[in-house]
Amino acid sequence: MRFLFSLIMRTLSQFTFLLLFLFSCTTFTSTEAYDALDPNGNITIKWDIMSWTPDGYVAVVSIYNFQQYRHIEAPGWTLGWTWAKKEVIWSMVGGQTTEQGDCSRFKGNIPHCCKKKPSVVDLLPGTPYNQQIANCCKGGVISSLVQDPSKAVSAFQLSVGAAGTTNKTVRVPKNFTLKAPGPGYTCGPAKIVRPSKFFTADKRRVTQALMTWNVTCTYSQFLAQKTPTCCVSLSSFYNDTIVPCPTCTCGCRGNSTSSGNCVDPNAPHLASVVSSSGKNGLAPLVQCTSHMCPVRIHWHVKLNYREYWRVKVTITNFNYNMNYSQWNLVVQHPNFDNLTQTFSFNYKALTPYSVISK
Ligand SMILES: *[C@@H]1O[C@H](CO)[C@@H](O)[C@H](O)[C@H]1NC(C)=O
Ligand SMILES: *[C@@H]1O[C@H](CO)[C@@H](O)[C@H](O)[C@H]1NC(C)=O
Ligand SMILES: *[C@@H]1O[C@H](CO)[C@@H](O)[C@H](O)[C@H]1NC(C)=O
Ligand SMILES: *[C@@H]1O[C@H](CO)[C@@H](O)[C@H](O)[C@H]1NC(C)=O
Ligand SMILES: *[C@@H]1O[C@H](CO)[C@@H](O)[C@H](O)[C@H]1NC(C)=O
Ligand SMILES: *[C@@H]1O[C@H](CO)[C@@H](O)[C@H](O)[C@H]1NC(C)=O
Ligand SMILES: *[C@@H]1O[C@H](CO)[C@@H](O)[C@H](O)[C@H]1NC(C)=O
Ligand SMILES: *[C@@H]1O[C@H](CO)[C@@H](O)[C@H](O)[C@H]1NC(C)=O
Question: Which parts of the sequence belong to the COBRA C-terminal domain (predicted)?
Fold first, then answer.
């Protein structure tokens, strides 16, 4: 699968090829737990207790993606936590736990989940209306702020039993984990915050949660994967030489010590290899290339005039386990301040802070 688009930028001074090396996929391979291109980006999980019940409470849990460009794609998020005491989940709307656990201590009414460390996933699109709440049931897919702020939230409701029944006795869950879908996010402790306020549809009345706590999770590329997941190759109109992705950018071929498995596109059994490994959808199954990257970005300079230059960008997916439908590409380049025209894609500027464009 390939995507093509091109862009034209006005040049300030003489265009230099060196500038191109400012952005590369390895930009994100930092050991620091934040992303220089989106330093305030985070995912905030908000628990709003909406009512107390005889043995616990009903809460709406919302997952807000406050990241500029990093979205959560299929197969979606998995949210986990550790209950502080012996809490159970009686029922859920708009989400479900992946395992019920051991509910043998209950007779009659059996809870939805009795695990000490439940893992919750979103329901799929097409869930019956009586099992939905607002912002649920998108298969765990959450947009980023730049792509579509209205879809940057996901929510589910749960009824918790064997729990505190007042704001003094309730215990906040601990050790939140967020997989989206793989590793990469680290979540802080839950903090009790001012109760959320909700406006009625006509905006004439405000109601509020009985109690609210927030958990903030941040992304680290280093935690997610030690090697880059894409690479950049370059070419230009004035030179036939294509500068390819460096060999072994994302791993070495046939080297089992560094993520070595790949599939030869000419192999006779390709279809069956791909379909049998495509089930979990997480580990990349890459086509054999010298760079071994799941994604290659090719930057071709088509024109370079004193006033402007024009490039064509080709993105190639080498990962048989992914069908990217909501992709975005983040490019850091000083001339983006003066982007004059783009073709076949939507463009938005990220302006994290000024020092990056050296
Ligand atoms: C963008 O263009 C304007 C004039 O057209 C110039 O003053 C400015 O420095 C340029 N910015 C960059 C980053 O090239
Ligand atoms: C998370 O992001 C939101 C929106 O950018 C911001 O208001 C909030 O302060 C951030 N939280 C943390 C703990 O950084
Ligand atoms: C708990 O509820 C009382 C009123 O019932 C309120 O005054 C107090 O601020 C609440 N505490 C928290 C942490 O929400
Ligand atoms: C939370 O995680 C920390 C570190 O992984 C561990 O030491 C602690 O026991 C965990 N707490 C609970 C309640 O599971
Ligand atoms: C808690 O999260 C909500 C929603 O993300 C946000 O509006 C609120 O400001 C947060 N509160 C604090 C104290 O961070
Ligand atoms: C084309 O680029 C290659 C690699 O950068 C260089 O070795 C070669 O001299 C260039 N050829 C011309 C005609 O500029
Ligand atoms: C495999 O990778 C390791 C570490 O990257 C390297 O030391 C080793 O020489 C490689 N082996 C082969 C056969 O390429
Ligand atoms: C990607 O899409 C193709 C064609 O629609 C389909 O055959 C294939 O199973 C899909 N692969 C994955 C991993 O979703």
Answer: 229-351
